[in-house]
Amino acid sequence: MSTGRPKDSDLQVVVTPDKHVSGLPPRPPAAGTASTALVEYSAPVFKEEEEDLEVKLRRIIENVPVRVSNTSGSSAGSGSGDFHQYRQMRRKEQDRLARMDADYQKRKELAEFSMRREERLKAAEERTAKKRLKRQKKKQKKKEKKVKLNAGGEEHQKEESSDDDGDSDTGEPAAK
């Protein structure tokens, strides 16, 4: 008859693989307890980002309860309230899906709006830049024309004034 305890000859040493197969790292042993394990725990080496994700994933798995509502036993038959429970669960699921669809549509419309807005702003900026360049060219031409007229006018005035002034070397009026 078996006592439930393994005999010394039944014990086996098991070597764990070097790489962890599961998505989660193994849990460390409880602190302060003397370990009698044949294989000691070694913490997996992760990058800082991966470590944060692993910690978050473990916290979610441990803290989020798995909720099963309105379950029936294996021997339970269909009762008079089961149809109403079914309708209630179906209505809740339909409402959840409708909210998800509405949220998706809202996000999609917002993304499309922002994309169209960016395109309109870019097009308006291009038009503004083109018109600004045209105004600057017109202003430059006007300025050049004014400078040209002033330069031509000054030369003409100098010619007339040199005839009227007389001899500039002696300071006497020129004889005519």
TrEMBL record:
Molecular function GO labels: double-stranded RNA binding; protein kinase binding; protein kinase inhibitor activity
Chain positions covered by the region annotation Disordered: 1-34, 65-176
Species of provenance: Jatropha curcas (Barbados nut)
Gene Ontology CC entries for this record: nucleolus
InterPro entries hit by this protein: Prkrip1
Skewed-composition ranges (Acidic residues): 161-170
Extent of Basic and acidic residues compositional bias: 1-10, 91-128
Protein name, as recorded: PRKR-interacting protein 1
PANTHER family named among the record's database cross-references: PRKR-INTERACTING PROTEIN 1
Organismal lineage: Eukaryota, Viridiplantae, Streptophyta, Embryophyta, Tracheophyta
Bias-annotated ranges (Basic residues): 129-148
